[in-house]
Design a protein that fits this description.
homotetramer, Dihydrodipicolinate Reductase, domain 2, 2 domains, five-stranded parallel sheet, globular
Chain lengths: 336, 336, 336, 336
């Protein structure tokens, strides 16, 4: 059994990881850290099904873990990666610290100096697009939730160069409230978030724009400008990205659909819906899957709709998928 | 036009009062206090339809108000009542400070000495049960949300002595999240409250037990023990109380129903549903009404179900109803 | 008092109209038709605050009404307009029957021949854009919900010719479930719609595309192609449209914002938010208002966000606003 | 691998069973029946993660199944049990057909003659209370959702005779909307159920009263009258039962709590919360567990709160637990 340490288990991503690991045939939670609640038990802090003692970070038992999953704020995470590597423990980092390839990009999007630039670049843990780099990696940068949906939605198109180069791609997205984290903020109070729907950080200000553009450039072989408009959605979990992209004139939907089906034919976690069908959160919540739909809005303008569970394929599930790859397990182990 | 000052307008009850006053034909908001956000405008603090400058309590313009509505924490409210009376301004106090008739009762349920015992007893502002005391009152204690539903539900029975004296009445109730206030708490985070349902303070620990028993004793002419189990319900607003009460043997439902219909025949805000119908929140939300249903569970055991909107009949609407009475207006003015 | 007949009162729009008319100082519901539930009372059919006898359409008392509001399916509505006009009764038609100016456009978007082509064109009842045509109109076509948000969002831009002519405008929109009507469908079952978010009829297939393009062309003086992606949102009510539009190079946000503020300065129901603020459903639900925000995503690409309550400004409230204009009342009467 | 056939897979319980079986290490879905959608694929009918061809009941391949799970309406289920047994296939029946021990009881609560009285009595599949009868059973009656929560909540008390014999037990319960099934009804429309809370069938009219009283009598060794008030709760899933029961005078909470802890010490799916803690749906949704809290409301009056997921411990999860017992597997297999 792979022994997993979890940092930040009282956060939504850390907790979700622990829930999935309960079902994993070859891995189990060895210990868990919650800096804010150290000394308590998890069941006292989170009224859910799990229970575990909560350790301070300084009490992490590195010798009792083969890998750690980091559900930590950015900044804190990188320092924990350094500590883990000093003890020879592998890491899947769910924070943003290792997602951007250079300290300059980090400074541009997250502000300030990178806390551990020697860790960069780290392999970007989106297995469907980058599997070859992940099997031997001791440290993996788990992708952001929005970028996961956008990259899986656009990859078959951009890899084949079927988009119009240089044209801005518009990503209109909505995320369930768990994506905003467990910290207390007025707009996350039930009465403010429920029966509401609100755009935030729209344009090019959300930090995930940098991550998306970095990875899209890699897929397309050239820069791809993105305009991104996220919205807070009154559900527990789930992301739907509605993506507007200019495609080569003359491309028809059947050909594009065939390309998508072929590209993801062997992928257990990606489902390209039949022509005419559109993904909904119900296709994917509580699964590690991404569901994708294609619609030709008018000649030359494709709408790609892509749905994931932000806590699973957008965080904890993908982290376990990456962990499976790191340890040579079946990539789907524990994720059905 | 009656000029109304509102204290605590950024809270849910204060804001709701201001919303209803927009529609009032004979009253209008003159100014509003928010101690925490003084100097800002309301629209900056609450993303809703209203906008007003927010004053500090010390800047309240007493000369420009005929009455103040207090949506304040208990303790703070009583001191504000004293200040208002010194300026000859009438008060409807939505806090708990004036609901209990004696300082001893206040100390027992709220802890500590009453901040202004000279104000006690104040008339209890449930017009359907206590209208005669309200017309000339300069200060009215606006009832608690749960007690409003329970008292309206039980009054016709207890006034007629149809219950079994001394038997415990069980009140199982559920309230929308706005009832817990706008302050930030972990259990009110959207992700914790949504898709959840949780009992809290059950038994005889909730502070509204004291208020209910005080008023029920007044109706029955003798003490009526209450066991109370409130639950947090994932909706914006609304209270449903399901009340189990032992009634005199031999009473049949038709007779009881007739009694209720007669008791409330002239009440514009109370609706006794036909036999066989049960109230739901949808009957009452966004109205100042109480809907009541009666079910004979078994001989001698009656179930009364009573629904209100906790922010309207349970708070701001009832406050305006009381204000209307204070100023000799039509009791329903501004409340349709 | 203006006497109002309501057709389709058990539907969400008809019911909402009746609720608002309870508060109207100069109008009241005279009678109400529900073909499916004729002979029952409204409170038996809809568990809400209202009660009225329900008439069959054939029993409509034309002599007892000055105006009728039609919350009817398209096709049925036009025939009812004809009947009303034969009796000299004014009409606000909330259906789609009179929104498109020609029978050809109707056939293209709704299928089949128009049931009463002699009624076309009818004045389009969006007062902020077309007030001059409405005061003397005996029949008004009440706009669609989505088009109301989109037209108010785009009008200041297109009227001034600040967009790039011929470029497709992308409208990504989300509507609360009441927008889908009260009829039973599997995707509207609580368990399917709750905790879900789903695109539908995206591209150029939704019928509101025809209505939007017709009115946008009128504003711009030339055709404006629209791509429209509506989504079903798990809330009771509310529409948020996130609109992506190419604007003239060199335009800055401050100038655009000034233009919007000026255009709507005298409009009681339109609120242009400060630069940097974005509308949410909470700004507008249960009001007849539209809240608009402007964001320059990148040079030349403007994001307009516009929120309304689909049942109020998107249906019943706007119908009452139109009725007020028809009868020379204050346009805001009954709508605060 | 145990081969499982599912009848009624498009219903919520059948679908949930298929989802859990995806994770089961020793069982898998062999085929699935949906009479209403036979010939289609599951993904066409239910927009969720699963896909399977849907068979007509007449095409069930009995030779390819070791056991069938029946998510069928009562009446239809019993006839399917007969067919399964004729082919030597084991059955877990999730309907009500086999829960009552006699045809007379069935007729009293469900109306009409029992469709297959020769099947009665069938072992009642609540393993924590009746495990000994289940290992060798070819047919098991899976308990109702509400009774599961109530029986687990009351068993330790009644088995020990700590209640006051003959006193009515009051069960106030709330269930998520999936408990009402996938069929279309007006009160299950999203707009009617959301932001609502409504009692239904309160008193002694709900069919689960008969089932509860039968099993409670078995635990107590004498009849136990129940008054039951269920409420429809705006969540996807989950049941909370708040149970009021008279207990022997002098019993203190610590002793009762000890009794509960001891009774369930070896049960993997029952969690007795610490004194002072109360169960919420969040403790149990998406798990096969029951969480129980105890509160002494006043001397002699105990409040038991018990939470389950109605689709898991209240239906599909418990069915798999029963299936595991039938086949000699670890009772928890596939249920973490």
């Amino acid at each position: 059994m792979i022994r997993v340490g979890i940092f930040g288990i009282t956060g939504y991503a850390g907790y979700e990881a622990a829930r999935w690991l309960e079902r994993h045939p070859a891995a189990k939670v060895a210990w868990a850290v919650s800096e804010a609640s150290a000394g308590k038990r998890l069941a006292e802090v989170v009224p859910g099904p799990l229970d575990l003692p909560l350790l301070a970070a300084g009490d992490a038992d590195w010798g009792a873990a083969d890998v750690v999953l980091l559900g930590l704020p950015h900044g804190v995470a990188a320092r924990t990666v350094v500590a883990a590597r000093q003890h020879g423990v592998k890491v899947v980092d769910l924070s943003a610290d290792l997602r951007l390839r250079t300290p300059e990009a980090y400074a541009a999007w997250y502000g300030g100096a990178h806390p551990a630039p020697e860790l960069l670049p780290a392999p970007y843990g989106l297995p469907e697009l980058n599997r070859a780099a992940l099997g031997d990696a001791p440290v993996i940068a788990n992708p952001g939730c929005y970028p996961t949906s956008v990259l899986l939605g656009l990859a078959p198109l951009l890899e084949a160069g079927l988009h119009v180069p240089g044209e801005t791609i518009i990503v209109n997205a909505a995320s369930g409230v768990s994506g905003a984290g467990r910290g207390l903020k007025q707009n996350l109070h039930y009465v403010e978030a429920n029966e509401n729907f609100s755009p935030y950080n729209i344009g090019r200000t959300h930090r995930h724009v940098g991550e998306m553009e970095q990875e899209l450039a890699g897929l397309a072989g050239a820069g791809v400008p993105v305009v991104f408009a996220p919205h807070l959605l009154p559900v527990q979990r789930g992301i739907l990205s509605t993506i507007y992209v200019r495609v080569q004139p003359g491309l028809d939907l059947a050909a594009l659909h065939g390309r998508y089906r072929e590209r993801y034919a062997a992928e257990p976690f990606v489902r390209v819906l039949p022509v005419g069908a559109l993904p909904a959160l119900s296709h994917v919540v509580h699964t590690n899957r991404c569901a994708i739909g294609l619609t030709m809005a008018q000649p030359g303008l494709l709408i790609i709709t892509a749905a994931i569970d932000n806590l699973v394929k957008g965080a904890a599930g993908q982290a376990i998928q990456n962990m499976n790859l790191m340890f040579g397990l079946d990539e789907t182990a524990g994720l059905s």
